[in-house]
Amino acid sequence: MSSPTIMLYSRAYCSWCMDAKEWLDKNHFEYEAIDIGTDAEAANEMVRISGQQRVPTIVVNGEVLADFGTPELEAFMKAKGHV
Questions:
Q1: How far apart are CA 25 and CA 29, in angstroms?
Q2: What's the gap between Cα 79 and its chain centre?
Q3: Reduced 3-state DSSP string for the chain
Q4: Which CATH class is domain 6-79?
Q5: Is there a cis peptide before residue 4, judged by omega within 30 degrees of 0?
Q6: Whether the model pTM is above 0.90
Q7: Residue 62 confidence class, pLDDT cut points 50, 70, 90
């Protein structure tokens, strides 16, 4: 199975974002972390992709999960066959 392409939109001081990064790291996923607090274009792209402004927002192989906690992230990744 190939590794999924993962983009994680987050903010520096978001505890849910930190939890998501920790979970991804613990499960050996490679991902691109995008800080929307320092990148206005990325923030606009996240809103366009997800239809909302909350972080964390993750895009895995083009599928979006927005405004989630670690349990939702784990369920999402399992449902997509990545865990």
A1: 6
A2: 15
A3: CCCCCEEEEECCCCHHHHHHHHHHHHCCCCCEEEECCCCHHHHHHHHHHHCCCCCCEEEECCEEEECCCHHHHHHHHHHCCCC
A4: alpha beta
A5: no
A6: yes
A7: very high
The tokens for 51 are 């239809």
**CA distances (Å), 46 to each of 1, 9, 60, in order?**
27, 7, 13
Tens digit of each residue's pLDDT (9 = 90 or more) over 10-48: 999 999 999 999 999 999 999 999 999 999 999 999 999
Torsion of CA 37, 79, 27, 22, to 10 degrees: 30
**Mean pLDDT of the chain, nearest integer:** 96
Query: What are the boundaries of each domain within the chain?
Result: 6-79
